[in-house]
Design goal:
Layout lengths: L6 H14 L5 H6 L6 H14 L2 H10 L5 H14 L5 H4 L8 H23 L3 H7 L1 H12 L5 H14 L5 H10 L3 H14 L5 H7 L5 H14 L5 H7 L5 H31 L4 H18 L4 H7 L5 H13 L3 H10 L5 H13 L6 H7 L5 H14 L2 H7 L1
Helix pairs in contact: 1-3, 3-5, 4-5, 5-7, 7-9, 7-10, 9-10, 10-12, 11-12, 12-14, 13-14, 14-16, 15-16, 16-17, 17-19, 18-19, 19-21, 20-21, 21-22, 21-23, 22-23
Length: about 400
Amino acid sequence: MLKNKDSDVRRAVVESLGNIGGSQIIEPLFNMLGDEDEMVRENASTVLKKFNDQRVMNALFDALEAQDKVIRLIAIEALGNISDLQALPYIRKSLKDVTQEVRVKAAKTLELIGKQANYYYQNMEISYIKDLDLGERAIPQLIEALKDEDVRIRSYAVLALGHIRHEKAVKPLIEVLKDEQYLRVKKEIVIALGKIGGTNVIEPLLKVLEDDDESIRHVAAKALGEIGDLLGAEPLIEALKDSFENVRNAAKYSLSDIGWREGNERVCDLLFEVLKDKNEIANRGARDTPYRIAKFIGVRGVSLFIKALKDDNMEVRRAAVEVLELIKDKQVILILIDALKEENKIVRKGVAIVLGDKGDGKTDEQLIEILKDESSWLQVKAARILGNKGSKLVMKILI
């Protein structure tokens, strides 16, 4: 039935043989790797992978040396589907194949293997990767492939290097970034640099953050956040003014990532400055960003926002209040209660709003006093908090 004219039938038979198992099905399934239907070939590869039989791998490695390009293509595709990292030293040779189609297939397969290696890395199976020496074996050929005239090969090479995340790829990626004309590949290079990280990639990423194309600026802003270095903070602040929303959002999230990783005080100081900016777009982005930082900083950032309550600018004070409301740590309440002793009346009002919103009954008098404040924003906040308390005394005051 493996020769049935209907591809659906052949797929079902392959799956059934996989469920049955037994070494006797290896050879017929190996023959199915040359099937005209892609799904049949993929299913056969998946089943063969379960056997973990070295004979299968050796046969595929031998097929990579065949004279017929079709056989070489089938072998490379099967190795990509199986995603066995031991195939790496064999497939890398195919990047120099005389046939362009084979080179493209080899580059794509290396990208798949790199993705698999990244999976092992993320799951802390470091010894497995080390034994296979993935980075050392693949990187020279992948770097050479970055200069290939075929854009598909360059693309797969970049993706593979991004998955492998080896520092040896940084300099070559930066070099090709300068001259790459294809937008898709250029974006992939920026993303790969962000994945690899390190201080060496920050400067080139800052340059492309000013690229004419908004999609490049977008991935550059995201990459800077992934690296999380404070050097990217000020340029990302500028990116909050970008005319494209995707760029602004990427800058906003990256700033919050940098803020809680590296130095929230510096980032928040910068954001508070932007809140005073007359640029409405930048102002909105800066107002949103501290909220994400608040989810991570907890107690260690409370003093920073209490300090911001003293600022002359209402937007800064508003942001500080709303951020403090988001921090749930019990120690925060104790710090805020202590801050009620502040001589600065503006600080006391802000703290009262925060504590009242957290359900602290000791702030009722301050909240009632805030109802008389000149700021309509503070009046609204106080009225809502008092209303939620629901006491008759509060009701009389509100009426």
